Amino acid sequence: MKILIVEDDRAISEVLRKLFEQQNFIVEIAYDGNSGFAFATATDYKLILLDLMLPQIDGITLCRNLRNQGITIPILMLTAKDTSLDKVKGLDVGADDYVVKPFDPSELLARSRALLRRGQVLKSSILTWENLKLDLDRCDASYQQNPLKLTPKEYQILALFLQNCDRVLTTDQILDQVWTYDDIPGREVVKTHLRSLRKKLKALGAPHNLIENIYGVGYRLNPNY
Fold first, then answer.
1. Does 2-120 carry CATH code 3.40.50.2300?
2. Nearest CA-CA partner of 45 in 225, 181, 209
3. Which residues carry this modification: 4-aspartylphosphate (predicted)?
4. Where are the domains of the chain?
5. pLDDT one-digit tens code per residue, 117-134
6. What are residue 55's phi and psi, to 5 degrees?
7. Where are the beta strands (DSSP E) in 116-182?
8. Taking the CA atoms of the chain, what radius of gyration do you get in angstroms?
9. For the whole model, what pTM was predicted?
């Protein structure tokens, strides 16, 4: 699941990156308002963490501009200010929630998950498909109640399939959602990760084609299982 952080303080942005990557989110960062607008209008993010004080375009204006473009991605505003006026301004232009810095990491994650569920990206923190189970809060994966030891990319790919269990995903869609803009590898990397993921699932008793290849189109969870 890919999120965007718009924060000009690089120390804070790196803290946020590590915090969310530890929870298996894919994180991209913009360091000013103009870049934030370009990123948010070009990519299908599931959540935006938006600082109030930004160079070029401030967070209030950026939030307003995104909403005026019809972008409905949940927005969580971050700021060092703690006045009612600032909160009202943020909410009035379309922000969904507001956290004051310095923030508590557990609270920030909880508020982020709440916004994702409110946006119907995550109806539940538990994703299941037949004998497959992912607990997004605990970052656990299992098959037939046996722990599934996955790399971060394998976990993110499997989560993407479980969040889109009725869809065929193309290689480009997987690359777009699981890798960051500045770190997109060749398309063969997707095949390599899927091969490893299938091998680990098969070792726990899953059919080899639980994730099936739709020739010339992409991949999906096999509806016959």
1. yes
2. 181
3. 51
4. 2-120, 126-221
5. 776 555 567 888 889 999
6. -75, 155
7. 126-129, 132-135, 140-143, 146-147
8. 19
9. 0.73
